[in-house]
Specification:
The chain is built from no helices and 6 strands. It has a single domain, classed as Jelly Rolls, CATH 2.60.120. A hairpin with a 5-residue loop joins β3 and β4. The protein is mostly beta strands. It is globular, with a radius of gyration of 12 Å.
Length: 93
Amino acid sequence: MANVYTTNPMKIDAVTAAAVNTTKLYIIKSIEWSRPTTINHKADVQDKDGNQLVDFNCVIENQNMIKYFTPPEPVYGLHIPVLGSGKIYITRA
């Protein structure tokens, strides 16, 4: 499956070499890392400027992790420099 930025939630299963959609404003409600397969796998999500939105580290195999943004976080562009395994779901407001 390829990364899908048009659905809500967005579905990410591959790293991005650079930020995508850098002029698009995303209002982020939550970021979930689904089913990381191996202890010490990592998943990072950043905005276009490299500001860290999440920095997940797997400590239990196949356990989902989620971060909620209250209030929702406005960001321009998305960059996924690290995704050890599993999928990332980004829910927009």
